[in-house]
Amino acid sequence: MAAGANLVIDGDRLVSRLNALAQIGATPDGGVRRLAFSAEDKQGRDWLVAEMRAVGLTVEIDRIGNIFGTLPAGEGAPVMSGSHIDTVATGGRYDGALGVIAALEAAQVLKESGVALTRPFTVAAFSNEEGARFQPDMMGSCVHAGVLSLDAAFAARDAAGMSVGQEIAAHACAGEMEPGTIRPHAFVELHIEQGPILDAEGRGFGIVEGVQGIRWFELTLTGEPNHAGTTPLSYRRDAGLVAARIIAFARETALSIEGTVATAGRIVFEPGQVNVVPGRALFTLDLRNPDDSRLDEVERRVMAFAREAAAAERVEMVVRKLARFPAVAFDADVIAALDRSARSFGHEPRRMVSGAGHDAQIMAGIAPAAMVFVPSVKGLSHNPAEFTADEDLIAGANVLLRAVLRLAQA
Length: 410
Ligand SMILES: [Zn+2]
Known about the structure:
The protein is α+β, with helices and mostly antiparallel strands. The chain contains 12 helices and 16 strands. The chain has helices at residues 11-22, 39-55, 97-113, 139-145, 150-155, 164-170, 197-201, 239-256, 292-312, 332-344, 359-363, 390-409; strands at residues 58-61, 67-71, 79-84, 121-126, 186-192, 206-211, 213-222, 226-227, 261-263, 267-270, 276-277, 280-289, 316-325, 328-329, 350-354, 369-374. Helix 3 (97-113) packs across helix 12.
């Protein structure tokens, strides 16, 4: 048996750190609001950096605000584990936070045990994973992996017109390190499932073999605002009607192409009055499928329909691509490390594909990567009621710890 093979995390410490972080940006309904690069995000960052230093990690922050805490050991590229601490506007306590705090807990256990590692271990917290305020999502890991430039990230603006560059400076979120400096040997991420499968099956956790492809679009339709009572239907250029038709067609397309989900999560009509034909409609589309060629077909059909529907109503359409991530297959060796770790606790691990986007799928572009999921009760996430039982949080963190140990001793 390898040295440290019986190590386990301190469950109370894990849960109490999760509780402490959940107090920052806490909302009255039990949820959390720590939007990327906000004052609350900065408070969370400062808390995390202090915890990392207290554990004895070497903290480095890069220019997009990604935070890395390294446990020096051995030599060469580190094994890295982490996630994000930003949330959506109405977020829960575990999305992202769990992956960062479980990695921190693993670092503390490894340090305190004195077990010999052949490589360093780095705990990572990536900036703006959610993309709730600034798109694209997974911004910090994209900049780290070199698929998004720092300039492009800094130029992204929120709905109020504030840029990432302004907000990073205003809240002192950035450090000096050039993005991408720490290139991991391997990357593992623990995350809540954010879907119903593990909870429904009564499983403690699942090993994630890949992430489905994701495409985000913003469609702006411009017609003509006019009187709702006097304008005959045939005279109208109703941007709202066209938006509604496209959204309904996206659902029909999702039903007809296996594995697809389609969502219009945000819509605005202008002028937005009860008795005025909408002159302008702006809405978003989120299209996903685990198979990129199927996703190509979904996009082709929806956009072809959108053009036809807009032309039929004499409405102009502008499509902006907000984010685009291919489907990702995770690394067999990292999956095997998680699998053996799970079995060392007597679990028969379930394999699954992630429906949500995660930093690990971006890190998979520069390092072997995989993920482990713990259940979300009733599949709820991006919701203040998001909940995972302590025993599942602890089981997931233990699987992560032993997988990290395997990878850092290999
Ligand atoms: Zn997340």
